Amino acid sequence: MNTAESWIHHLNLIPHPEGGFYREIFKSSIEVGNNVLPRGFNGSRRLCTSIYYLLRAGERSRLHRLKSDELWYHHFGSSLRIVMIDPEGQKHVRFLGPRIEKAEQFQILIPAGTIFGAELSDPGSFSLFSCMVSPGFEFEDFELFEKEDLLQAYPKHSEIIEKFS
Questions:
Q1: Among the four given CATH numbers 1.20.910.10, 2.60.120.10, 3.40.50.1820, 3.30.565.10, the one describing domain 4-164
Q2: Is the pTM of this model over 0.90?
Q3: Alpha-carbon distance 22 to 83, whole Å?
C-alpha cells in the first residue's frame, strides 16, 4: 500500500471539511462534564478522541481552530508543514515527520485556540497521520475560517492566509 488511494480505501477514510480524508478511530468511554471543562464548551465531552487523517498531493488542511488541544502523530508518507497563528497573533511553523536532521518531530501539539493548517512538505506525495483531541472533538467546537475574515484580523500573515484558506 504505497498510494494515497489505497490507504483511503483500506482505512475507510471520508472527505473532511477542512480538506483531506479522515475517519474517527477512537472515542474515549470517559465523559467529562461541562462543570469541569474550560469556558466555552456547551455540554459534556469525551475525555479524548482520535482520527486517522490523510492529505494527498495538492491538498491542504485549511486554516481552522479548535477549542481543545490537538496532538498530530506522523505515520507514513510525506512530512507536513504545519502553520499556526496563536491567540496573541504570532505565527509559528512546525514540521511533522521522521527526518530529525530537518528538525521534524513525530508528534506536534496544537494548543487550544490556535488557528492552524497544514500542507505536504513533499508536494508530489501524500501523508498519513493521526490526530488526538482532548477534550474530545465535536464538530460544534470546530471553526473553519473565511479568507477575508482572517485577512482583516491578521493582515501581517496574509501570505499563509492566502495559501491555507
A1: 2.60.120.10
A2: yes
A3: 20
